[in-house]
Amino acid sequence: MSVKALRSSIGCLLVLSAVSLPTWASDFRHIADPLKLSDSLYIGFDDDTFKVGGSFATSHQKFSANTNLDGDKWHLGYLYSASDLNFRASVEHGKTDTPQGKSSHYQYQMGLMTEHKGWFTTQVFAELAVNHLAVKHYKDSTAANANITVLKPMTEHWYTEFYLQGNAGIDGVERYDARTWLALGYQINPQWSWVIRYQYDWEKLARIENEDTQWVFAIRSQF
Q: Tell me: the pLDDT tens digits for 95-108?
């Protein structure tokens, strides 16, 4: 993926978020809704890695976490949601390619998410954020982030998800990355569902560029 293509993708995210109609919180939210405030559990296989996670929610806040069994890749998330204000923050620990090989990193992100109602019961969630990536013994970089999630219930049980995000460095460091996935899910009942998705990742940090694809299978529950 080229830098020019990534910039075009980010532009498309902004256009999509602008043309959709805004909507607000309701009593019922889909199990895959990123703004849903509920306690939940998550287990899944990310490529060949087993992951576990969950969330704890109050009337306006949600705290979430997930990790692999080795503990070297994990994510902590926070959501504050009230009317049309949805603030999200996260801390992520993972691995990044460097000239010396794989190195651990921390990424801190804060953003505002808006919710829109699209055509034919489609829900669109658009977020603008800023994040800081710190790679051990290599580079630090601050970037602007735009991402969009499209959730489409097809029947009472079946649903699809489309996700697209892009980062672009804003501090002089050459950093661009993108992630997208397409998922098919089945909601067994209001508390349980399973989902399978195909995911593509591309990233460029200074002189290092790589891409990856993977299949993900997960089971979600909510209470």
A: 888 888 889 999 99
Q: Please check whether residue 111 is in contact with residue 93, taking contact to mean a CB–CB distance below 8 angstroms.
A: no
The pTM of this model reads 0.84
Retrieve residue 88's tokens.
């999200």
Residue 85 to residue 25: CA distance in whole angstroms: 10
CB 62 within 8 A of CB 86: no
DSSP-based three-state secondary structure for 207: coil
Neighbouring residues of 111: CB distance < 8 A, sequence distance ≥ 6: 87, 88, 89, 127, 128, 129, 130, 145
What are the structure tokens assigned to 1, written together? 């993926």
Rounded Cα gap, residues 76 and 182, in angstroms: 23
Identify residue 64 by its one-letter amino acid code. S
